[in-house]
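Re: that backbone. Tokens:
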């Protein structure tokens, strides 16, 4: 289904007024059998997965296993399958982490690719973006994600519904106008399992190689690619993303 620019504006206005469950239902009705939820097992998308499962909606979860996730991340994925019978498609990079190391002769994630290419940007592209695009393109017309405007940075103005030309599909962020407190309340109210590393000071969780806990007062994304920012302080904590979301790929926001 192709939505004209004019319709997209009107649709966004309408979606802004709906609760997330109704937005999920709208997506399921509008793109029957062609809706995915992209999740890295963080709080916002586990809430979305719960909503979809609770409503009995036909949606597939797409999870990219970079090969260097925390074991807790994989355990949470498996727990959601066990608990709610969720259909999860795990996409994987073309090469294992070890094969990638052998090809380049070094760990790309350790290098600042602006001054020392190839580096972490290429690593994210190889291990996250390309497997994700391959898993989605041609298979789904609408891909839900967990971005919220309250995260700030590149996400502070994210549209609820937009076309992602890389995917040939619409990106939909049903929690765009929710705060992290609202997400926490939903999770608590429905006894949703959460990633155990949140309780250990992690605020945003990606690959174990590039994620650390945050210190008091630091922004939520300060734990991501800390080793790169320490080498290149010009890279703002809130300006570094893995590139899965088009919104994050504006100049200056990569990887
Ligand atoms: S987060 Fe780090 S290890 Fe994971 S894909 Fe990106 S650069 Fe590679």
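Recovered sequence:
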């Amino acid at each position: 289904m192709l939505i004209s620019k004019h319709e997209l504006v009107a649709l966004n206005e309408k979606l802004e007024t709906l609760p997330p469950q109704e937005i999920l239902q709208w997506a399921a009705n509008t793109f029957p059998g062609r809706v995915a939820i992209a999740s890295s097992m963080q709080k916002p998308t586990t809430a979305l997965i719960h909503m979809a499962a609770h409503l009995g909606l036909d949606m597939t979860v797409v999870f990219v296993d970079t090969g260097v996730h925390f074991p807790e991340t994989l355990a949470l994925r498996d727990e959601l399958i066990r608990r709610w019978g969720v259909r999860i498609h795990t996409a994987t990079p073309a090469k294992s982490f070890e094969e990638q190391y052998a090809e380049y002769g070094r760990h790309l994630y350790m290098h600042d690719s602006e001054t020392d290419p190839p580096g972490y940007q290429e690593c994210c592209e190889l291990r996250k973006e390309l497997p994700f695009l391959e898993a989605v393109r041609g298979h789904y017309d609408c891909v839900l994600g967990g971005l919220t405007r309250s995260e700030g940075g590149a996400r502070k103005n994210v549209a609820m519904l937009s076309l992602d030309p890389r995917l040939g599909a619409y990106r939909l962020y049903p929690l765009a106008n929710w705060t992290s407190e609202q997400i926490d309340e939903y999770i608590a109210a429905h006894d949703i399992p959460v990633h155990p590393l949140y309780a250990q000071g992690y605020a945003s969780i990606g690959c174990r190689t590039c994620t650390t806990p945050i210190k008091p007062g630091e922004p939520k994304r300060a734990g991501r690619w800390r080793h790169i920012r320490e080498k290149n302080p010009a890279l703002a904590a809130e300006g570094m993303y893995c590139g899965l979301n088009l919104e994050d790929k504006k100049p200056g926001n990569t990887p």
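The helical segments are 5-16, 20-30, 43-55, 71-84, 97-104, 120-136, 180-189, 226-231. The radius of gyration is 18 Å.
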